[in-house]
Queue: 4 jobs
Job 1
Amino acid sequence: MLASLTGSFTTFIGNHGVYAVFALMLLSAVLPAASEVVMLYAGAVAAGAFAGAHVVVFGHGFASGGWAYVAMAVAGVLGCFLGAVLGWAIGAFGGRPFLERHGRWLHVTPQKLDRAHRWFERFGALTVAVGLSVPVVRSFVAIPAGIARLELRRFAPLALIGCIPFCFGLGGAGYALGSSWDRVHSAFR
């Protein structure tokens, strides 16, 4: 199942470049959607590791290299940030009762909400910046921040601070792996 999912993501990114990275990172801020694989593969595409996969932004193609990496990482940051704001809005306006009724669609259980609430009580707003920069944890930060009524003007900059190292870091790791991607991808199978 995981191999099929990562294969679908990599094909989507290979065909649609920055637009796919943006869309997948937007979704992964609210749903656990293998954002780690998305950014690793985006970096590998930027390095020119795959024939036929290219980085195109508004009709302008980038040769593989530094600017292609920056374009993929920025697309990831924008998607991650807007997805986090969407997650915050779901939590702020839907609240805990909404998530207890419909959270299964977002893979949010009452236990996960309780755990996130304890983190917010213990570490405060810092939970947003740190949580969004940590793989796996990041999908369970934005919605509880909205439920906790963290103000959007405080949440947004912290979310951006968390998204930047995640996207540039994993994108950079994928870029560094370059043509070794097949070995890394097989580890996810």
Job 2
Amino acid sequence: MAKYIINGGSALNGKVFLQGAKNAVLPLFAAALLTEEEVVLNNCPDLLDVDNMARILQSIGADVERHGETIKIRGNLNSYEIPYGLAKELRSSIFLLGSVLARRKKAKVAYPGGCDIGLRPINIHLDAFRELGVKIEEKYGYIYCDASNMQGSHINFDYPSVGATENVMLLAATAKGITTISNAAREPEIEGLQDFLNLMGAKVSGAGTPFITIEGVESLKGTEYTTIPDRIVAGTYLMACAICGGEVEIIGARPAHLHALLSKLSKSGCKIKVNNDKIYIKADRRLLPFERVETQPYPGFPTDLQAPLCALASVACG
């Protein structure tokens, strides 16, 4: 049985280079299916979820090659059905619903798996697709979609869902007409997807705000793109240093993506310095108690950093 052996009691010191963001690269994989031309993704993290997404793409005909942190994808789709076993392993397989529909006008996918944080219903995805004219049937654990009569529309989300925002962007990129999203998610990963789609020839604007506009185009082309750094991994490193004490420099970050966390750490007594893509933290004393911290959609405090924050709070004063 695998196990971790941790020899604690020492301060953390040194430099760490940040990897690409998993939550950013997975929708980019799906977006790569919107063209038959080659797409090159740089700064891809070496993670199981990324490998599983690559396997799903390969199962429906795409060519996927990995060379270190670079992945090349050519979306030669020969199927519109996402295999049950693979879809069950990865929650982000739901992104493929939008991109496969855009390419093949039909899609069949099992209910996605992967992550059990809360219920994470996908109805918000399906309701948005219906607004775009997609016919949807759910039976025997599968979702069947027909986008033969798809066209642009206005979508107003009850909640700023990251996944649903990304899925609509993928589907609407080549739909007829203009699609607008109100109460869209504002996460940096949304901005990354917009940048990537626009490099492919899409016309998407407004990412990073609650209002996104997608003007459908007839086709998209291949491109090369570098995945944004992982703000959740960066936050985990920062809090590890705050817990253990020491001095750590994180290289390759985007400090603006971490404002909510950096503000909390600074107020608790950590010394924080920011210089372009570098974040320096020094923790040489027991931290002051936190005031109330409530997780919220970006730019609020991220849910994925709630667990390490609890560990940090357990060693703070008060």
Job 3
Amino acid sequence: MPPYPSVGNNDSTRLFYDLSASKIHKLKLPETRGVDICGSSHGWLFLQKGQVVSLLNPITRATISLPLFSGPLSTIGIVPLHAINPENFFDNWEAHEYSISPTDIVMVRKAILTSSPLDRSCIVFVFTYSVWSLAYCKIGDECWKVIEFEFDFPWGGDFCDITYSNGFLYTVSPFAAVTMYNLNNRSRTLLGGNVNLIGIHLVEGVSGDILLIHDRPIYVNGNLKETEHTVYKLSNDGEPVWIEVIDVGQNVLFLGSDYNALSLSSANLQFPEWGANCLCYDSVRTEKWNPEENFDSWYNHNIKLAKLDNGMVTDITGDLGSFQVNELWQRSLWLTPSLL
């Protein structure tokens, strides 16, 4: 979905660029009028309007309601890495510490599903700006369950991204410290860090491995001209550390704006000319910059394909037009269509 701002966010039209047909489809989705589209997962969109959240399949128009953010909450405690008495660490923590009043602002930064929401075992995770950072629910639950924990880092709850793989939730900090959470036994494991990166994304690879994508914007005279990307994976030898890689096997990585990223197998794509081991991304450039008011600035964009082994970058769409970033603009994100 390319960026698509509308005045007051009152337009129900949403744009979908079809890579296989090389064309933009305009879909009328009244369910998206006046709401924020916070992410996509397993072919479904996560919608938010204030404290009301839901899922929408843009192909079938099916919708699934989720618990209100201002509704009752429960909690699950994740013990610190070096807790002396982990069994009793959260005895004095109460759910009311995370309660949200109807007037509180909750901004969902990212939402992910563990499977199709039609699967009764599906779990919805949200990563938010609010009195709590992480929460989850199962389809049909009446309330969100807040994941509570003590931060081990001096920058507190400043996560950059989250992802889910093989039954574990992963978070990444500004210094690429990745923590793996086991919600079944309420434990966590620090996997790696000590890489000073700004602009990082966690992605589950097609084989279940965890990849980290670093994007580095290139500015010329204050104008954004291009973005370069580097991919890392955790080493398997000794202490986990991030190592830069130029070979991600059969992965084709897709990167949208903010926290939207996914990985697909090249065997499942109808683009034999692409091959594998590449990154497809929405390339954004400054068209008109207003240094006094960012919301008055204009950008244009196109979709590019970068080969990770040789760095060759190909423009695969041409110019997709201009857009203005405002408080209600639709961020670009990738969607894998689903009829289920």
Job 4
Amino acid sequence: MRSFIWCVVVLVCLIFSVNCSGSSDSCEGKTCPTGQTCQEGQCVSSSCFFGEVVCSGQCVDTKSNAKHCGACGTACAAGETCKNSLCRNTCASGQSVCDGKCVDLKTSAAHCGSCGTACVTGETCKNSLCRNSCASGQSVCGGKCVDLKTSAVHCGACGTACQGTEACEDGQCKSSCAGGKLACEGQCVDVQTSKEHCGACGNVCGGGKLCSGGKCGCASGLKDCDGRCVNIKDNYKHCGACGKACNISVSATDLAKVDGVNVSSVTADASGNMYLMGFISSSGGVNFGDVNLRKADHNHFIAKLSPTKKWLWAVGLTIPIGRPRIVVSKSGEVYIASFFRNKASFGSIELVGSDTSDPFVAKLDKSGKWLWALKADCSGNSSASRIVIDSAGNAYVTGAFREKMTMGKTTLTSLGLDDIFVAKVDTSGKWGWAISAGSTFVDNGYSLALDTTGALIVAGRISKDATFGERKVEGSGGWDIFVAKVDKAGKWLWIVDEDVSGYLKDVVVDSNNHIYVTGAFQGKATFDGIELTSEGKEDIFVAKLDNKQKWAWAIKGGNSFSDSGEHIAVDPTGSVYVSGIFQGATYFGATRLFPLGKSGIFIAKMDSMGSWDWAMSVDGESAYLGRGIGLDGSGHVYIGGYFKGDVTIDGQKLSSTIGDSLYTAKLKQETQPCSAGVCQ
């Protein structure tokens, strides 16, 4: 009987749309779509599975739903999952979730002991406590490791600065120094032995010399040749006697050309494969071996050339504006970075930008297949100028941005017009951290390099007073060049700036973490007391920065016209290679180069002490240099660019048949060794 009554009630509900069990097609004045009913004042699915409940108009399982865990509206934090109605940490044992990431609170410098507790620069996190990571006897002041016993800026305590001619000795500011020492740059020093103040304040012993008895000189067994201490028994430039040089030669081999393209960037891997990128200028397209790339489909190309001059692969891409830089990882993967407007395509991958220029990074596998591409979102014109890759495959870029730029979860805001940025891209093609620096005017990050610890070396120029993280840099009022270091977590560690009117174009780091830079300057340029004076409008400069952020040497090249160092590389022996542009007859050590037209291209080598070894020119009325210098594992040097008409390299001539043509060359160098003071 009860069953019969229940069936009648259900039938009445269906026929007359009576609101039974709270359901109706009419839900607070609105009609629910077919397949939905009204529950709790909302139209919801009428077919929730057993165990599900309605939350925000949807059927959910509160036992496993991370947005509604245990009850509607109870959301799990980023990095947590919902299991049996409880939010649970998905991190490995011993880790916690902070800002959506799994971290170890015992070792994380950004989250030390608890989420958001960050250690300052110079500290590390150990056993959940921020600890001083400076050398023994040093303390952290203003984000830098200093010796409170000798620092004139932090004498005895952070922020306690000595005045005028006072010096800091044993943590106290003193007007005079004991023991015959002199107050030099706020410190009491022994001018009888100090390399930085030998015999008098500011008298620096260069060229590897030591200070003894207040005089700069060479150590036992070394001889002073041209102001540098050398062993004449094995030095190929001073073999047996100062100035007696062994033979040094360089020749160009394996020249190649492709008509209808120009080159913006070039590099090489350890095996001698070359990678080139540039613009397709021929309307009929271009051939790289068996691969034809049509300008109608692509306006840029990337191609790989084997040591036997065979094109292994070539791919096209479309980038409105921009001159991309190319780098290759040790495993042969290729990365590029630049900027674009509106749209850019990388195979089937398309990026959509705006009318302003946006930086981008893209990656290909070792066979030339596009893997990913990503961009930054910018409100003003911005660009990426340099990219480097670490051993794990993470990419890092630097450049300049205007107004606001968003990279992943980070939004940077410029202090003035253009500001410097440095950003990380992980192996999957997602933005990591991003940082900025700059002044109220125009600042640029031109180049980037990695040291052996994985830290980044950033180089460029600033104007006016600039801010780099916790460090304030006082500008000269004009253009200054700078070199700065950023740790793997994206924190500014230190900055060296010099009053040099010009450009710092490129930077590289050797295996001992010495830093080399090149560029162009006007008038006078000073590097820690080393003064250079330009011969003409602009001269080339090359300089070396040691591990103590002191300039070891600086040299110039040029004539009465405009000359510039554009690119720099260093090999495992510490030899330095520089390429650039020169006008008029120019000396590189004992080698004199003459441009064929108004300007020419040079590639030159110097030793680790800054002495020129050789120089070679690329001659042509309309010859241009691709950005970058390639080095392989056998001591060969690779260059590339493009030309119109004819180009001559080491007496070998190439001719263009249509418009722009690509050129490449491998340079082979031979140095006669010196043994027991005799050239062998």
